[in-house]
Specification:
It contains 24 helices and 16 strands. It is of the alpha/beta class. It has three domains: 115 residues, Phosphohistidine domain (Glucose Oxidase, domain 1, 3-Layer(bba) Sandwich); 109 residues, Enzyme I, Chain A, domain 2, CATH 1.10.274.10; 311 residues, Phosphoenolpyruvate-binding domains (TIM Barrel). The strands form two sheets. Strands 1-8-7-3-4-5-6-2 form an eight-stranded mixed beta sheet. An eight-stranded parallel beta barrel has the order 9-10-11-12-13-14-15-16, surrounded by six helices. The protein is globular, with a radius of gyration of 24 Å. The relative contact order is 0.10.
């Protein structure tokens, strides 16, 4: 009897193959007090396990074939950096010495503290970085507990195009699976912004996450079908069903080959309207992914990772080197650098905050934090300004809600320019300053912001979350997180209209911009600048080049008049036929 299980599709593609069930499980952590004479021996045992974990990751990194995109290795480097950071390398040692506890217990206590800190983060993307911390710590714990490393078993089980069904995977494990020809992955945990999801997309592995208790319904070695676009796992199909999906698989391969040919094709609608297609990046190494798909520039460069997992914020020089590396690599194409979007509910070293924050999403974060702590903000402004001397840089302010904030940021920018002139350091005097529209108040007042800024950027992830009071990372209510909700669409339309009337560009950098099912609707609403994850850029371009604007505008106007999400979804389905 056929079985269909549903999760969240995070990496598109159709895969067929035999199932292999793997459960990580959570090791039982021993807790005991050590006599003083054994403390330094225990410290040495912990540091030895830490170095072994680093060596394992370095070995995995060396196995990545030459010519593989640099963003693949960057995921392994992230875990290496975590294992070298003081939060994992020093704090457990301090706990062993102060509490006389064993290494496993000390590491588990630090993991709990880091998990609390990440759980309180208001930014959904940054919250998912908790998974990376847990993966790095799990590797060290397994070494301390003298458990067989799961990578060896995984490598053996991935042969023959198997579909791996598991509770969770680390980036290192996924790289090994890719090297051994895995057909697809299905995990119980994880979300669309987890590193494993991003890595699966980069590697082209069909993947579905959030499929709870899948192993209760399937057996080892039975033939499965995974549809990474729809987020579906199918078991028990007959010969006709399997033949249907094999044909779908071949269609997908031909479609991907056709997309690659679009790299150098202009993003222009059939009636001649040019559309700008930018890429979102987080690290300088991500530039290669943007280049491979022919992005017109960088529409969102998140700077938070420069500040994470360290005891002190990066200084001006370190930031300048990172930003200028991206700007120089783009060779004159625009680069939009978003200023720091962290919250006061967490510190740069990942430690738990001293005081609790009732609702960090509504607290001291992003531009609010930067204006409260100008000594944190000023070095970043100077670094961005200095990077602007090397190319076309736009500075983006996150989470604006009042014009007073905009005026304060402009004043700080002018002060930073004066300091650079005094130092005789070059910068672009006419650097564009923009604001992110991700709070309903900012969208409603978009007309006011448009008169005082050079561009606007719609951050749909937070805009939807704040408008609907629904956290998309919360399984209990994420069904309420609906991009087609009338309030969301009307706020987007208001912002686009404000940009047109003021004669300034409006970009969309949230997930809606990268959803091909919404591309035609956004075009119809008047969006002409998209900033998307590199893996989906060419698919969005294909839709743009096949679209005529006037019919899309008519349907978009009809959707804006709807008061029900289901009605809007039906009209959208017709639009995409």
């Amino acid at each position: 009897m056929p079985v269909a299980l549903h999760g969240t599709g995070v990496s598109r593609g159709i895969a067929l193959g035999p199932a292999r069930l793997l459960q990580r499980g959570h090791p039982e952590i021993p807790e005991y007090v050590l006599p003083a004479a054994l403390i330094e021996e225990e410290v040495a045992r912990f540091l030895g396990a830490l170095e072994t974990a680093r060596a394992q990751l370095r070995a995995i990194r060396q196995q990545i074939p030459a010519g593989t995109p640099s963003d693949i290795a960057a995921f392994i480097d992230t875990h290496l950096l975590m294992l070298e950071d003081a939060t994992l390398a020093t704090v457990p040692v301090d706990l062993i010495r102060s509490e006389h506890c064993n290494a496993e217990w000390a590491l588990a206590m630090q993991q709990e503290a880091l998990t609390r800190a990440f759980d309180q983060m208001d930014d959904a993307y940054l919250r998912t970085r908790r998974d990376d911390v847990e993966h790095a710590i799990m590797r060290v714990q397994q070494i301390l507990l003298d458990q067989t490393q799961r990578e060896e078993a995984i490598a053996a089980e991935a042969e023959g195009g198997r579909i791996i069904v598991t509770d969770d995977l680390s980036p290192g494990e996924l790289v090994l699976l890719h090297q051994h020809g895995v057909a697809a992955i299905v995990t119980e945990h994880g979300g669309p912004m987890s590193h494993v999801a991003i890595l699966a997309r980069s590697l082209g592995i069909p993947a579905v996450v959030g499929m709870h208790h899948a192993w209760q319904y399937i057996r080892d070695n039975e033939t499965l079908v995974v549809d990474g676009r729809q987020g579906v796992l199918l078991a028990g199909l007959d010969a006709a069903g399997l033949a249907f999906y094999r044909a779908r698989q071949q269609q997908e391969k031909r479609a991907r080959a056709a997309l690659r040919r679009l790299k150098d094709t202009p993003a222009v609608t059939t009636d001649g309207t040019p559309i700008a297609l930018f890429a979102n990046i987080e690290l300088p190494e991500d530039i290669q992914a943007a280049r491979r798909v022919g992005a017109a520039g960088i529409g969102l460069y998140r700077t938070e990772f420069l500040y994470m997992n360290r005891s002190a914020p990066p200084d001006e020089e370190e930031q300048y080197r990172a930003y200028s590396k991206v700007v120089k690599a783009l060779k004159g194409k625009p680069v939009t650098i978003r200023t720091l979007d962290l919250g006061a509910d967490k510190t740069t070293d990942g430690a738990a905050p001293e005081r609790g924050v009732t609702n960090p999403a509504l607290g001291l974060r992003a531009v609010r934090l930067c204006l409260r702590e100008p000594e944190l903000f000023r070095p970043q402004l100077r670094a961005i300004l200095r990077a602007s001397a090397h190319g076309q840089v736009r500075l983006l302010i996150p989470m604006i809600t009042t014009l007073h904030e905009v005026r304060q940021v402009h004043e700080l920018i002018e002060e930073a320019k004066a300091e650079l002139r005094q130092r005789r350091q070059p910068y672009a005097a006419d650097i564009a300053i923009g604001g992110m529209i991700e709070v309903p108040a900012a969208a409603i007042c978009a007309e006011d912001f448009a008169r005082r800024l050079d561009f606007l950027s719609i951050g749909t992830n937070d805009l939807i979350q704040y408008t609907l009071a629904a956290d998309r990372m919360d399984d209990a209510i994420n069904h309420l997180y609906q991009p087609l909700h009338p309030a969301v669409l009307r706020l987007i339309h208001t912002t686009l209209q404000a940009g047109r009337e003021a004669g300034i560009p409006v970009t969309m950098c949230g997930e809606m911009a990268g959803d091909p099912l919404l591309t035609r609707l956004l075009l119809g609403l008047g969006l002409t600048e998209f900033s998307v994850p590199p893996p989906v850029l060419l698919e969005v371009k294909r839709i743009i080049t096949d679209s005529e604007l006037e019919p899309l505008r008519r349907v978009a106007r009809s959707i804006l008049r709807q008061d029900d999400v289901d009605q809007s979804a039906a009209l959208l389905a017709e639009l995409n036929d």
